[in-house]
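Reminder to self: tokens first, then the designed residues, so the page reads top to bottom the way the pipeline ran.
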């Protein structure tokens, strides 16, 4: 499954008044994150993605993902339980850029992929490697 969340920046979306985007997901494992910056963002549109009070991406706290006419795409594996299935993003600009879109895509796999190997399956996998 892929979830898509979009926001069109306005001049009011600035660092002291960041736009918060709620991103409800189902239970599963996040395996892919894409942040699309429309042409015109000029590396002045910023995105941070959180679960609760914990900044997930970018990993270095306080930093933000930026871009222009590009997709910042990465793989990560984050388990999402039903009780913590709401992520949120903060999006802001420099107060000058306006009417440009930032789109966040999140790929989610079912939790079944986390099923542990049986001992026999694990031994077979080790022997084949």
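Designed residues (129 positions):
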């Amino acid at each position: 499954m892929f979830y898509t969340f979009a926001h069109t920046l306005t001049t009011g979306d600035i660092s002291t008044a960041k736009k918060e985007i709620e991103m409800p997901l189902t239970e599963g494992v996040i395996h892919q994150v894409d942040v699309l910056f429309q042409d015109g963002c000029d590396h002045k549109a910023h995105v941070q993605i959180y679960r609760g009070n914990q900044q997930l991406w970018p990993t270095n706290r306080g930093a933000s993902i930026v871009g222009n006419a590009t997709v910042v795409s990465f793989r990560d594996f984050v388990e999402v339980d039903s009780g913590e299935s709401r992520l949120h993003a903060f999006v802001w600009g420099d107060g000058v850029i306006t009417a440009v879109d930032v789109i966040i895509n999140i790929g989610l796999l079912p939790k079944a992929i986390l099923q542990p190997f049986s001992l026999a399956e694990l031994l077979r996998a080790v022997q084949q490697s």
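The chain has one domain: 2-128.
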